[in-house]
Design a protein that fits this description.
Strand order of the largest sheet: 2-1-3-10-4
Order of helices and strands: EHEHEEEEHEHEHEEHHEEEH
CATH architecture of the largest domain: 3-Layer(aba) Sandwich
Largest sheet: 5 strands, mixed
Shape: globular
Number of helices: 8
Mean pLDDT: 92
CATH superfamily of the largest domain: Periplasmic binding protein-like II
Helix content: 25-40%
CATH topology of the largest domain: D-Maltodextrin-Binding Protein, domain 2
Strand content: 15-25%
CATH class of the largest domain: Alpha Beta
Number of domains: 3
Amino acid sequence: MRVIVVGTRGSLLALTQTRWAVERLKENWPETEFKIKTIQTKGDRGADPREQNIFVGELEEALRRGEIDIAVHSLKDLPTTQPEGLVIAGVPRRVDPRDVFIGRNSVARMADLPKGARIGTSSVRRRAQLLAWRDDLEIVPLRGNVDSRLKRLVSEDLDGIILAAAGLLRLEMRNRIGEFVDPEILLPAPGQGALALEVREGDDMADELAYSLNHAPTRARVLAERGFLHGLGAGCLAPVGALAQIEDDVLVLDAGVLSLDGKTLIRGEIEGDPEEAWELGLELARDVLEAGGREVLAEAAGN
């Protein structure tokens, strides 16, 4: 019997996500044996966070070499251009894609923040949107895993931090969440809250296993968001937000780009057939670029 090796990064969140996926696979394929293999990526070794693909490259190389059969990624970390010979076979049901606010002391919600409040985040997307919402905020760089960021909320005397809801929910830390932030204030990163199960092209068994966890509405939503990112020609580190919903069998995509200082926001919306999700994302990207988004992204890339 073939043992299916599932690859993941070694962080607590990555392992938690992968264990969840493997448990679902075991439920669907009880006679198949699965093994989890942890692989250290450039991102885990402290690579410059401004580099692309720092959390996925080593996993994809392990796939190509046959060391693993399925790679489990946070989908928002994946480039929008799929590497030759690899395919995303399954996109499981998405966890809440929104960002969340965690405050200190009496600051339970973002509305409670005092003037000049110090907010921790290293995401240029979050930084730009926070400054667009309130230009008096001081944005403090904040990197590391979920635990270390939560500790720095106190150690660096911050008034609050912004994290992805999905990580806290998967780690069963919902009690730490002060507020789910309205997407009108913080549009999530494209693909945030979703996982991707990647396999080698032509590996029919691994493909079938991974596809058994695929959730079609989630896949359509993230395809639209990633289509928008791809159409912009932007990477996962650009100041870009996107959120797709499916309402009454209609996909609605809300997405935009911002200047790094939050003073310029080019945002749009498009709706259509979920079967055309990728094309809808590309079309909205063209509209946003023509409305001034090209200049905004060029300025951001130069900083």
